[in-house]
Design brief:
elongated, 39 strands, 5-stranded mixed β-sheet, alpha+beta, 799 residues, 12-stranded mixed β-sheet
Length: 799
């Protein structure tokens, strides 16, 4: 009778189908669509589930088919009773889609209400202790393994390729060397490569490792060059020692490959007599080949690592360490830990176990009896994740049956199980500048997991801390993850609709929206919902206030300021003023400004600037957001504020001596107002109607300043058509002021020519042409006639 469906194990199968989705093992789109249709019709009845097997019945029309999934040796093997000829069918796909959909609809609940106020990222909800039972149960079976062919007596083939003899001559029974290869020499080597990864068709009985014939180019200095595939047209040396016969045999095979264990058995036995063997690991083009040094395994140590929680309790995984010498130091290089991936690649026959470790350049091997080799191979490939009781049982069985070659460590008697609200993460990636992708991850402890578990091994439903003396397992909360995923979908969907006008979103799909704009539109909501935000895999921190300014240096009439962010009590200068949606880099970190509508006001300009003491508008902006508003650079601004606060009325002044006219009352009032601006260090706009004497009032103010030794030189910028009028008005009403029109071919070429002039008259166009000349002259006043010419802040004239 099939065992009933256990929801604790369905999370395991959900993770499996997240890593190997139906689209990967179904043969075509038509089958995929049929599978989805059966899922939507509720045609699937799940009948039993365990971490290693899933069974279901699929009703298709008037017939019902039995389907099954097995998960053995980390390989997914589906089957169905329909006439699918061994291929993955729509019934198999329908089961996978049903598991995924049931999980997405919240069928597997942790019993935690997502709306509970305690559900805050990082909050510990419970801490429990899981203990193992006293007596171990049954363990490994008595199977002795199946025999496989092995032979080292290969007949030399009549055509081994083109051989370079000892005297340098070439010998070959067939084939010719091309002109480009005639001066080259290659060294024959063997390359050890894994079998193609085909999880649906692979079985345990098929070889996992293959040998491939390869050639290493010998440079003129005798050193090794690139590693290349074997070719009959390349002249090679003879293989070293007794491996020439093996090399010739591999060359004769189809695809020039042969199962590694069967072919290497005799060679490894001969190595004990001093025979060398040139073996390299499979390498990627453009990288240096890594030699595979064959090393015998003296002894193996079986340890235990907590890897997850299946809903009922914590799980452990057996991990092997290999001892390649006699030592008691676990950090000694003679110890090598066999990782899960390396264990998958291990290969064996009934006498030889072979384990490639490319990271360490080792090809580990051991000869032993068939029962020993089979048991060790099963530990590497097929040992499922077990609970505390199962670990105790497995440890006792391994001691009893493998004690001669295996040192077994005691599994922990208890584990701490933590239920912690995961920290949700929204990661936004820029794609070609104009598009973006969004990923959702969850962090338990210090491990990050994408939704669905694609970053963790199959079946793992929690993260662990396996390094501490008291191991801790973090219980994974899939329904809380689903809650955050839906919240993320709503946030990103609303932002996308706001920015690009399209609502539909799909995580890991390309979105028609630049990453910066997307962040600008949704950063506030992301942080308020408790998410961590990342841009290009870098964490983005929130800054709710506007950027701050800090005075870096100051002098007579000027100071330098820099733009930065305030992170707590620390002021961090902005490194790059270019921003993407308000994201800036400061102190090597990324910050985003939230809740600020006019960020361009701060971030569109330079992040370091020099400010004149008379630029009151810039002074006021900087002081408002200054890191140190009491800095002496703002003393004049503070004094001005006090004077303006005490201001009551304009003080009338008398017309200056030397003014050759009588001012009317409103002109006297205008002169008093201009002098008020002068006294307070302010700029102003005189906007009387045309014909009411604006030029006269301005000249009267200049004459007053000259009379009180408050002016040495003034610059008047006016349209070309009014320059002569200004010159005539000065000669008529203020003959005490000298004036010169700077225009035409006779204009001044040096500052010395204008040094004795009281009022310099120039047009807007000529000022732009001769700006370097005017920058070299000190002016106390700048008067702009027809000032609407500079109303555009982006124009060159305004600048």
């Amino acid at each position: 009778m099939p065992r009933p469906v256990d929801s604790r194990h369905l999370a395991f199968w959900h993770n499996v189908f997240q890593q190997v989705p139906p689209q990967e093992f179904l043969p075509d789109d038509r089958t995929d669509h049929s599978a989805w249709d059966l899922c939507e019709l509720d045609a699937v009845e799940l009948t039993s589930s365990t971490p290693g097997e899933l069974r279901a019945i699929v009703k298709d029309g008037a017939r019902a088919y039995r389907t099954a999934f097995s998960f053995f040796g980390n390989k997914l093997n589906p089957s169905c009773t329909c006439a699918s000829s061994g291929k993955a069918c729509s019934h198999i796909g329908a089961v996978a889609y049903t598991v995924l959909e049931t999980f997405a609809n919240g069928a597997y609940e942790s019993g935690i209400d997502p709306d509970d106020p305690r559900v805050v990222p990082g909050t510990e909800l419970s801490r429990e202790t899981a203990r193992r039972a006293a007596e171990p149960r049954s363990g490994l079976g008595d199977r002795t393994g199946t025999a496989s062919t092995r032979s080292g007596d290969y007949d030399p083939l009549p055509d081994p390729g083109i051989i370079v003899e000892a005297d340098g001559s070439l010998s070959s029974r067939s084939g010719r060397v091309s002109g480009s290869e005639r001066q080259k020499v290659y060294r024959p080597v063997l390359e050890i490569v894994p079998a193609p990864d085909e999880p649906y068709t692979r079985t345990r009985e098929e070889p996992r490792l293959y040998l491939r014939a390869a050639l290493v180019y010998l440079k003129k200095d005798g050193s090794d060059g690139t590693l290349q595939a074997y070719s009959t047209g390349k002249p090679r040396l003879r293989a070293p020692g007794l491996s020439e016969h093996l090399y010739r045999f591999i060359v004769s095979q189809e695809r020039r490959m042969t199962p590694a264990v069967a072919s290497l058995a005799s060679e490894l036995e001969r190595m004990q007599d001093g025979t060398s063997l040139d073996v390299y690991f499979a390498h990627k083009p453009g990288t240096d080949p890594v030699p595979a040094r064959p090393v015998p395994m003296e002894r193996m140590i079986l340890g235990w690592v907590p890897v997850g929680h299946d809903g009922a309790g914590p799980l452990l995984e057996a991990r092997l360490r290999v001892e390649t010498g006699t030592t008691d130091d676990p950090d000694d290089p003679r110890y090598t830990t066999i990782t899960t991936e390396q264990g998958k690649a291990a290969d064996a026959d009934n006498r030889l176990l072979l384990i490639p470790v490319p990271e360490d350049g080792l090809l580990l091997y051991r000869f032993d009896t068939p029962p020993i080799i089979f048991s060790l191979t099963r530990l590497l490939h097929d040992t499922p994740r077990v609970d505390l009781d199962g670990a105790a049982t497995l440890a006792e069985t391994c001691r009893r049956r493998l004690g001669s070659v295996l040192r077994v460590e005691d599994p922990p008697e208890e584990l701490t199980v933590l239920t912690v609200v995961p920290q949700p993460i929204i990661s936004i990636q820029a794609t070609y500048g104009y598009f973006s992708t969004v990923h959702v991850l969850f962090r338990y402890g210090d491990q990050e997991i994408p939704f669905g578990g694609s970053a963790i091994a199959f079946g793992e439903t929690s993260t662990t801390d396996g390094q501490s003396e008291n191991p801790t397992v973090y219980r994974r909360l899939p329904d809380i993850e689903a809650h955050y995923l839906k919240r993320a979908d709503d946030i990103v969907g609303d932002a996308l609709e706001k920015v690009s006008g399209s609502r539909g979103t799909s995580f890991d799909a390309v979105l028609d929206c630049p990453a910066g704009e997307l962040i600008r539109a949704c950063a506030t909501e992301i942080f308020e919902a408790g998410f961590e935000l990342r841009l290009e895999d870098e964490r983005v921190r929130r800054v709710s206030s506007v950027p701050s300014y800090r005075v870096r240096a100051s002098g007579e009439g000027w100071f330098d300021a820099e733009l930065g962010v305030r992170d707590g009590e620390e002021f961090i200068p902005i490194e790059d003023p270019q921003h993407r949606g308000g994201v800036v880099r400061a102190g090597g970190k990324l910050f985003v400004f939230t809740g600020i509508a006019d960020l361009e006001r701060y971030l569109s300009g330079a992040h370091r600037l020099r400010v004149a003491a008379g630029d009151l508008a810039t002074l006021a902006l900087i002081e408002e957001h200054a890191d140190d508003p009491e800095h002496n650079a703002f003393a004049a601004l503070r004094a001005l504020r006090k004077r303006i606060a005490a201001f009551e009325r304009l003080d009338p002044i008398d017309p200056p001596q030397g003014l050759q006219c009588t001012l009317r009352p409103y002109q006297l009032h205008g002169l008093s107002w201009l002098w008020f601006l002068h006294e307070y260090g302010l700029s102003g706009c005189l906007a009387d109607d045309m014909g009411l004497g604006k030029t006269l009032q301005a000249l009267a103010c200049l004459l007053t300043a000259r009379a009180r030794d408050r002016m040495e030189r003034a610059l008047v910028v006016a349209p070309v058509s009014t320059l002569t009028n200004w010159s005539n008005e000065i000669a008529r009403f203020t003959p005490g002021l000298s004036a010169r029109i700077h225009a035409g071919t006779g204009r001044a070429r040096s500052a010395a020519e204008l040094s004795d002039v009281d009022v310099v008259l120039v047009s807007y166009a000529t000022l732009r042409l001769d700006i370097s000349l005017f920058l070299s002259l000190p002016f106390d006043y700048l008067i702009l006639d027809e000032a609407q010419v500079v109303k555009n802040p982006k124009s060159k004239t305004r600048t």
